[in-house]
């Protein structure tokens, strides 16, 4: 199974949607709350190629984007492969 990292804030509905999709698939993830730590948010922004919004999602170290990007991968049938799930 792939390592999934997600940068979030507590009140973000897109974060909730992304985490819900991952949970639905039975995928564990490492969550980092960037709401109260400017250094963590800066590190996230740098790692995400300048994207400052949350969530920012990484699968096995590869930046896949935000919630809309994650759901688009699911819609195209590509998310399971990235997550290392078997059909």
UniProtKB/TrEMBL annotation:
All copies of domain Glutaredoxin, residue ranges: 4-64
Keywords, in A-Z order: Cytoplasm, Disulfide bond, Electron transport, Redox-active center, Transport
Classification via SUPFAM superfamilies: Thioredoxin-like
Pfam families per record: Glutaredoxin (PF00462)
InterPro entries: GLR_AS, Glutaredoxin, Glutaredoxin_subgr, GRX_bact, Thioredoxin-like_sf
Stated family: Belongs to the glutaredoxin family.
Protein task: Has a glutathione-disulfide oxidoreductase activity in the presence of NADPH and glutathione reductase. Reduces low molecular weight disulfides and proteins.
Protein name, entry field: Glutaredoxin
Source organism (scientific name): Paracoccus simplex
Gene for this chain: grxC
């Amino acid at each position: 199974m792939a390592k999934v990292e997600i940068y979030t804030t507590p009140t973000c509905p897109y974060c909730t949607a992304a985490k819900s999709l991952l949970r639905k698939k039975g995928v564990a993830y490492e969550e980092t709350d960037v709401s109260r730590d400017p250094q963590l948010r800066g590190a996230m922004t740098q790692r995400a190629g300048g994207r400052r919004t949350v969530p920012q999602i990484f699968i096995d170290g590869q930046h896949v984007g935000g919630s809309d990007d994650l759901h688009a991968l699911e819609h195209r049938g590509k998310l399971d492969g990235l997550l290392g799930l078997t059909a």
